[in-house]
Amino acid sequence: MDQLPAAGVLTGPVDVRAVPDDRGGALWRLAAAGRQLDANVVRVRPGTRIDAHVEPDLDVLLCVIGGGGELESAAGRQLLEPGCVAWLPHGTPRAVTAGDEGLVYVTAHRRRPGLAVRGTGRAAPVEAVDEGGEGACLLHRICPGCDRPSDDATAAYCSRCGTALPS
Questions:
Q1: How far apart are CA 112 and CA 110, in angstroms?
Q2: Which range has highest mean pLDDT (9-18, 65-74, 151-160)?
Q3: Are strands 85-88 and 126-130 parallel, antiparallel or unpaired?
C-alpha cells in the first residue's frame, strides 16, 4: 500500500534578507515525492520585471508575501501588496513588475511533470524550459518513490526504483 506524503509545515518563514540582493527567482520549491501540486516562493528584484508570458495549460494562484509591485493582465494594471491573492487563468497573458522594495510571492498550481521554471540570469524574463516531461493528464504515471514518469503505461511498478505506481 502506498503511503501518502506527510502533512505539515515544510519550511519556516523564508527570510529573503538572507538571499543576496542580486538574486531573484525561486527561493524555495515544493519538492515532496508523490505530490499533486507545485509551489514556489519567488523573488523579483526591485525595479525589475517578468515580461508578459502565457501559461497555456495550468491556472496559477499567486499570493504576495512581501514587497510590492504590479500585475499586468487583460484586467489592466493591478497593485500587488502583501496579502494580495491573484488568480492567473491558463491561456491568459500576464506580466509582473516589482516595486522599489522588490516583490516576493508564492505561486501554486497543479503539478506538471518534467517542467522547470528557470531565470535567465537577468531580471527578466523568466522562461519555462521543457525538459522532456509529459502533460499533466499523465499524473497517474508519476512514481511516488522517485518522482519520475513511468515509461510503461501498463506497469504496476516503477522500472527505475521498483515502487508501486498509483492505480
A1: 7
A2: 65-74
A3: unpaired
Peptide bond into 125 cis (omega under 30): yes
Neighbour-count burial of 19, counting CB atoms closer than 10 A to its CB (0-12 exposed, 13-18 middle, 19+ buried): middle
Phi–psi pair at 161, nearest 5 degrees? -125, -10
**Share above pLDDT 90 across residues of the chain, in percent, rounded to a whole number:** 33
C-alpha distances in Å from residue 124, one per residue of 18, 31, 119, 163? 22, 24, 7, 40
SS3 (DSSP) at 90: coil
Query: Would you tell me how many other CB atoms lie within 10 Å of the CB of residue 94?
Result: 20
In the chain, count of helices (H) and strands (E)? 0, 9
Amino acid at 166: P
CA gap 26, 85 in Å, rounded: 18
Cell numbers for 165? 505506481
- How far apart (Å, rounded) are the C-alpha atoms in residues 41 and 104? 7
C-alpha cell, 114: 518534467
